[in-house]
Amino acid sequence: MKQFQLQFVQEHQAGNTILISFLLRVIAELHSNQSNPATIGLANFNTGDFDFIPAQLGKRVSTATFLNIDFNKSYKKPSATHMPILLHTFSKHMVPHSTTQSQLNNILQTFNLFAKEKKVIVLVKAPVAIRQDFFALVKAYETLGVIDIIYLIVTDDDLSVVGMNMASTTLIRYNHSDKAQTLFPDRLANLSSRPYYVACYEDPPTTFKDKNNKTIGSAIALIDIIAKHQSTNARYFYTKNAETVFKHGQTTSIDLATYRFIRTIASPPYSLLQMSPMFHWCIAVPRQYRRILHEQVVWPFAIDLWVLAGGLVAFFALYQSVLARILATRCPTVYSIVNIPLQTLKILLLFLLSEYYTAILSSNLGLSQLPAYPKTLTEFYLTKLSIMYHHRRILTEIQSQISSRVVMVNTTQPYEPSQFAILQLCDRFRHTIGKTTKLYGKQTSHHQFHLIAEPIRSLLSLSPFRKSSPRFSRFQQYVSRLNEAGIGDYLWRQWNEKASDELSSGEEDTDEQNTSMLELDHFVPVFINGCYLYIVAFAVFIMEHAIHRIQQAFNN
Q1: CA 219 to CA 483: how far, in whole Å?
Q2: Which of 108, 374, 429, 473 has the greatest count of CB atoms below 10 A from its CB?
Q3: GO cellular-component terms in the record (predicted)?
């Protein structure tokens, strides 16, 4: 009975009455702005100062669900729930200053509020608000990245509302009649003078240095777009290789890193950002060619053109051997009119066909070699090529007809590029094939391999973002919207091409130059064509000689 009387007195104190009215109004406004049903978290309300609050809120806010946990006692961790609103009491029973941040970290972890936008309301009795522990609490919330927070300082007959300014740097006073939109403004819309600090390393086309030593890449372009939309910029810290940026229990000013990886540990010390495209593994097969010689002589002309040429040859052969003699003896007038135009037509047709034939044959010199390597997965299945790779964990959950061909790197035997296919990231093939083959034992360029652009395995690509950063949720929203609009894929393709131009080495330039130079074997079809012509000329000579002998025999 005595406890009930004490609670009744607490509820009807002027300050507590104003507090309950304020909480009901603000919670209703915040709750109405939620697109999905939300649970409201209550932390440490089992103390004597504010233990009547949960019951009052439960009675008067029927549309919300409340989860009350006393972190000073043993409790069962709740399942993952959407809790964008948190009410936290700070009383004289608060833990010592040394454990303030660890307890707040535990509260945010338990309510699953890290890497999410949240509204926090802290209730403080006036005598406690002047203690050093209270200022440690404010500093701890700031360190943990909680920027949408207000502190309600309650006296027996009044209520004071204190919160952060727009830049989240100092405490300012609000009126307890202010709307929730005033108490919790959008502090992430304008980050002027508060840049992003980004760690990156040489990883083309995501991030790399250009010839002017400027950090560029697809991730840089994407981050710059987001930073500009938030009225700020980004500062990049570039290293040759990836470094450990985020560690448990260690603070850092770095907001995010452009590193791409596959999630491997259960509880990483950072939030997982989906910024880059997915990892797609493709098969790169060595380029092999089959020489064709005699077929190329026939290819320049289509079948119907060869029929026309053959018909003209037969006609002029018939005319020269039979019709011309008949016309000359029986119709000399017609012969004199027809013969010269026909001879002119023969010369003209011979000139046109030979010139076109020579031109087409010269332009198709490269066709003396036909690709003999598979261009699709279906064609690859018909070959006996083995696939070389060095990370066995990537090979899980792939087709058996692929996994059965995978061989690991054998350091005891020399690596021969022409005998093995290689697993490569589809979008980084041109930039990583040289390093991969060098790792296997013999460096080659992308000119010596063909990438089958049909992924055999796809995995989610993740990047680390500081766990305590309040910018994570908004940044992820921007990235998702840019990817939905196709801008992310566009930047990736654009910088993939630019990286190829920027990072082209002298060796690759030499290889490309060599592939474009004419060599002696390119002219083998020309030599064969010449032989054919000589053979035809010799046959015509024999035929004309035979016809001449036959005509002499008839005349005699």
Answers
A1: 12
A2: 108
A3: plasma membrane
> Contact, 141 vs 153, CB < 8 A?
no
Distance CA 421, CA 417 (A): 8
Dist CA 68 CA 129 (whole Å): 23
With left for phi above 0 and alpha for psi between -120 and 50, is residue 231 left, alpha or beta? left
What pLDDT shows up at residue 128? 65
Q: How far apart are CA 529 and CA 520, in angstroms?
A: 15
- Determine the number of helices (DSSP H) and then strands (DSSP E) in the chain: 19, 21
Rg of the chain over all Cα atoms, to the nearest angstrom: 41
Distance, CA of 527 to CA of 521 (rounded, Å): 10
Residues 394-430 have pLDDT tens digits of: 666 676 778 788 887 776 778 888 899 999 988 888 8
Residue 292 structure tokens: 């064709």
Cα–Cα distance between 76 and 81 in angstroms, integer? 14
pLDDT averaged over every residue in the chain: 82
Burial 175-189 (b: 16+ CB within 10 A, else e): ebeeebeebbeebbe
